[in-house]
Automatic annotation (TrEMBL):
<dbReference type="Pfam" id="PF01266">
    <property type="entry name" value="DAO"/>
</dbReference>
<feature type="region of interest" description="Disordered">
    <location>
        <begin position="368"/>
        <end position="392"/>
    </location>
</feature>
<dbReference type="InterPro" id="IPR006076">
    <property type="entry name" value="FAD-dep_OxRdtase"/>
</dbReference>
<dbReference type="GO" id="GO:0016491">
    <property type="term" value="F:oxidoreductase activity"/>
</dbReference>
<protein>
    <submittedName>
        <fullName>Glycine/D-amino acid oxidase-like deaminating enzyme</fullName>
    </submittedName>
</protein>
<dbReference type="InterPro" id="IPR036188">
    <property type="entry name" value="FAD/NAD-bd_sf"/>
</dbReference>
<feature type="compositionally biased region" description="Low complexity">
    <location>
        <begin position="371"/>
        <end position="382"/>
    </location>
</feature>
<dbReference type="GO" id="GO:0005737">
    <property type="term" value="C:cytoplasm"/>
</dbReference>
<feature type="domain" description="FAD dependent oxidoreductase">
    <location>
        <begin position="3"/>
        <end position="354"/>
    </location>
</feature>
<keyword id="KW-0560">Oxidoreductase</keyword>
Amino acid sequence: MHIAVIGAGAVGLAIARELVREGARVTVLERRHPGAGTSATSFAWINAHLKRPASYQALNRAGLLAHHALHNDLTEGPRWFVPTGNLEWAADPAHATALTAAAAAVEEQGGTVERLTADQARALEPGVRIPAGVESAVLFADEGYVLPGEFLGRLLTDAIAGGAELRAPAEVRAIDAGADGARITLADGTELAADAVVTAVGRWTEPLLADAGVHVPMADPDAAGGATVGYLAYTAPAPVRLNRVLTTSTLNVRPDGNGRLVLQGLDLDPAADPGAAQQPGPGSPVARTLRDRLAETVVGGEYAEIEQVRVGQRALPADGLTVCGFTDDRRTLYTVATHSGITLAPALAPMVAAEVLGGSPAGLLADFRPTRFTPGRRPGTRLAQARLPGEQ
């Protein structure tokens, strides 16, 4: 069976890797280069505890466990997943209430939660500066972070070693899917025939599928201050001791290898504008704010230098939930679109591969089918920025 996978981000490459492992012939089409889309601007925190509703939290927990399984199966090569947990504390009452609820929800689903005193948290991460008045913290021990480049490299090399063909750059202009297979037209006029097509193109999902007569509405990825955009700041090697994801009321930070850090301040994201003629640089106000927050949060942060600020554009279905499934009963065109791509990729891959190759539907995907959308209508869901500390 010949499967065309459109999109070579984390989700597309994970699916391609799984399909070749199941014996399919696979062609991956990517309009620029692997990882050029959303995967290149992800905080890459592997977590489930902030996800709602319960079915989405369960799906993300499956992703988290799949990362652990892949990590444990490795016998050689670089490790893309760092399963050292997520340490979180709350400096305001609303955040403290939300953190308590999140910890209970994780425990209900079988996750490991450690409730720490402030002194225990400092012993675990000697470099942290926990504010006065904060007496406790929570360690979500099952969580971790991914080094996106190494993760994508592993997926890509495994897929190609298994026989997948990568065509990049190869921009898809049209998909004609019928009961007897699909025909894909590329921007250069060439055509490719396949038994089935899987789209994993992130924020480009809506226009690509619309040309194929399929309605999967996505939140506008270019809307300044909208739910899809946010800042990420990257430091030069810094004298900071940090072993895990750290989330606080003002700053999220994780290691990025070789002493570098990735910083995120969710309350700053409403100012992000991917269409701005001049994007914020290392000396911009947002960079200075994030660096000041880092100095307040970890020892040595005051000596860190911001090398780059990126405006990430999230792939976010219009109702806020993952899309995963066949677009109609012909079982020729399958689509995946999700805000949680790096977390979900290793869990979605075997479920998608099984369904595309004729297996039974995956129970975890029941709430996330693309057929939930009414043609010609957009969901009335109000999508805000990524959930801020203290929000339910």
